[in-house]
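thought: user wants a sequence for this fold. calling inverse folding tool.
action: design(structure=
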C-alpha cells in the first residue's frame, strides 16, 4: 500500500503545473492614460522585447503609488518611446506619473518550474533600458 501511495504522489507531482513568474518590468512610470480605448496597457516595444513579453499577453500591473493591482493585456507601443500607457477602465485606477511593476506568469510542470529563470528588467527613470 505504501508503494502505491508513493507511486501516486510521484504521478501527481509529474502532472502538476504551477504558475511562476515569467517576466517582470520593475518600476516604470506611466506616461499616458487613454480612458476611451477598449482596454489594455501599451508598452514600448524595446521594453517588451527585453522583458520577453508578447502582444496580447496577460499581465498584472502593480501600482506602487496607490496600491492598485489589476490584470490586463499588452499592446505593442512605439519602439524607443518609453511609452507605458494605461488604456480603458484601468486608466481610472492608474494615472500618468505613477510608478508600476508589470508582471507576467507562466504555467509549467513542477520540476521544470524549479529550474526556470524569469526575465526581469530594471529600466531607467525615463523608461529606457
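)
observation: tool returned 129 residues.
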Amino acid at each position: 500500500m505504501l508503494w502505491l501511495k508513493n507511486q501516486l504522489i510521484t504521478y501527481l507531482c509529474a502532472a502538476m503545473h504551477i504558475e511562476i513568474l515569467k517576466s517582470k518590468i520593475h518600476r516604470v512610470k506611466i506616461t499616458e492614460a487613454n480612458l476611451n480605448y477598449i482596454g489594455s496597457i501599451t508598452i514600448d516595444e524595446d521594453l517588451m522585447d527585453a522583458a520577453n513579453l508578447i502582444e496580447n499577453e496577460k499581465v498584472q500591473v502593480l501600482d506602487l503609488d496607490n496600491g492598485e493591482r489589476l490584470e490586463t493585456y499588452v499592446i505593442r507601443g512605439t519602439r524607443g518611446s518609453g511609452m507605458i500607457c494605461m488604456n480603458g477602465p484601468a486608466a481610472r485606477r492608474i494615472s500618468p506619473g505613477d510608478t508600476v511593476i508589470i508582471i507576467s506568469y507562466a504555467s509549467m510542470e513542477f520540476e521544470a518550474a524549479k529550474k526556470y529563470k524569469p526575465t526581469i528588467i530594471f529600466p531607467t527613470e525615463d523608461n529606457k533600458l
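thought: summarizing for user.
answer: Here is the designed sequence. The longest helix spans residues 2-15.
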